[in-house]
Amino acid sequence: MENKELKEKFIDEKTGIEYVRQGVYYIPNLILPKQRKIHLNKYGRLRLNYLKEHKKAEYTIMFMENTLVDHLEEIQETATKRLNLIIDDLKAKSNLTEDMKNTDMLYWGGTMNAIKKQAEEIILKELIYA
Q: How far is residue 34 from each of residues 37, 63, 67, 72, measured CA to CA in Å?
């Protein structure tokens, strides 16, 4: 086939994929659908990085099927709600009250930090790195 006979574009009848000529080669003209943009919080970003680094196949499939943004949005909403529930539960179990914030500020602050870290460890194990 000479260069004069080469078409600029053609559509494969079997697959329906459009090909564009680049020099003497035909390259598939694949276009990804537009991804919806959302603001990712800490847990959304952690999940995204985990998928990119450790679950590359799942990340690629979700990206190509345009479900990645929905997945990240669901994970961050679930993580935030679950974090608040766990913190409230741990606060109740530790007998920590709001009055202690005024009377023993260092104890209250240290206990709240420990509770938050425990809750975050649970969230990371259950949702982010699963």
A: 9, 10, 11, 16
User: In terms of pTM, does the model score above 0.85?
Assistant: no
DSSP state of 5: G
Q: What is the pLDDT of residues 94-125, one digit of tens each?
A: 888 888 889 999 999 999 999 999 999 999 99
Q: Is 21 exposed, middle or buried (0-12, 13-18, 19+ CB in 10 A)?
A: middle
| Angular region, 47: left φ>0, alpha ψ -120 to 50, beta rest | alpha
In degrees and rounded to multiples of 5, residue 97 shows phi and psi of -120, 165
What are 42-63's pLDDT values in tens digits? 999 999 999 999 999 999 999 8
Cβ neighbour number for residue 59 with a 10 Å cutoff = 18
Q: Kindly report the CA angle at 48 between 66 and 63, in degrees rounded to 5?
A: 20
Count Cβ atoms within 10 A of the Cβ of residue 98 and give its class: 0-12 exposed, 13-18 middle, 19 or more buried. Answer: exposed
